[in-house]
């Protein structure tokens, strides 16, 4: 009789744990993280592998209130020891983070977007004189500015298509980032994008200002030159006079 009662007690205990796990999962789904963490902690401490897995995930992604990779790893190890395959995969993921630390740091704070202003998208400012008097020089300056404008427009289109720069993070690297690292990366890349855009805008304004000054000075010279030529032709003595 005692044996029967003991088995029954174990069965009831299992049902209670299943209900609590379901409650914890429901709380997590509703983003009630503190309450979910409380239940997961209770279950994890009794040896529930799924709860241990979720504890590891919450500490890894910061849903436990802060990112704590040491605690995350400890919980993943406990769950993996009980045969939880997801926990084992999570431990492998954490090992990859160690081996690819340099790549993670690159996207978190070292990427500078240099390739966005290189190659076909490198648009050096054309040299524009203060004024041009000869037709061949006028045509040359106009052609150089037109080529620069085509390059700049291509650069702008490519920059716009590259936004947001978080798209440039390789998926296998993005999958290794923690929640905090993902946010740090986003902020850094937005700053890089803004810096590139602002530098290009300033450079373009300078080119257009120099071109505008050159065109005004050149147009004024041509106008004055044509007036002199016209006046000279009007006052020149005619044959037979």
Considering the chains and any ligands shown, give keywords for the structure.
mainly alpha, rod-shaped, Sel1_AlgK, 241 residues, disordered N terminus, 9 helices
Count all strands and give the number: 0
Calculate the terminal CA-CA distance, rounded to whole Å.
Answer: 146 Å
Derived structural class: mainly alpha
Secondary-structure element order, N to C: HHHHHHHHH
Instruction: From the alpha carbons, calculate the radius of gyration and give it in angstroms.
Output: 35 Å
**Could you describe the largest sheet, including whether it forms a barrel?**
none
Q: What fraction strand?
A: under 5%
Shape: rod-shaped
- Overall pLDDT metric: 90
Low-pLDDT segments, ≥5 res: 1-15
Helical element count?
9
Percent helix range:
over 70%
Keywords: Signal
Organism: Massilia mucilaginosa
Protein name: Sel1 repeat family protein
Describe this structure in words.
The model is unreliable at 1-15 (pLDDT under 50). The protein has helices at residues 2-29, 33-45, 49-61, 69-81, 85-99, 101-110, 135-162, 171-174, 179-235. With 241 residues, the chain is mainly α. It is built from nine helices and no strands.
């Amino acid at each position: 009789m005692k044996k029967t009662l003991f088995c029954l007690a174990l069965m009831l205990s299992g049902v209670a744990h299943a209900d609590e796990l379901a409650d914890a999962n429901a709380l997590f789904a509703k983003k009630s993280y503190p309450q979910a963490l409380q239940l997961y902690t209770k279950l994890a401490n009794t040896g529930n592998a799924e709860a241990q897995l979720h504890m590891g995930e919450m500490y890894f992604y910061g849903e436990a209130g802060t990112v704590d990779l040491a605690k995350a790893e400890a919980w993943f190890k406990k769950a993996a020891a009980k045969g939880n395959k997801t926990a084992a995969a999570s431990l492998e993921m954490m090992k990859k983070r160690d081996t690819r630390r340099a790549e993670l740091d690159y996207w978190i704070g070292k990427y500078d977007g240099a390739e966005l202003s290189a190659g076909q998208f490198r648009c050096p400012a054309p040299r524009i004189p203060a004024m041009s008097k000869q037709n061949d020089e006028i045509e040359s300056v106009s052609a150089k500015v037109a080529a620069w404008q085509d390059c700049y427009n291509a650069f702008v289109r490519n920059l716009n298509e590259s936004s947001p720069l978080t798209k440039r993070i390789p998926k296998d690297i993005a999958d290794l980032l923690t929640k905090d690292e993902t946010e740090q990366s986003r902020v850094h890349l937005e700053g890089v994008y803004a810096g590139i855009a602002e530098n290009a805008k300033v450079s373009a304004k300078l080119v257009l200002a120099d071109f505008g000054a050159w065109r005004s000075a050149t147009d004024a010279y041509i106008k004055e030159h044509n007036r002199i030529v016209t006046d000279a032709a009007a006052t020149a003595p005619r044959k037979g006079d």
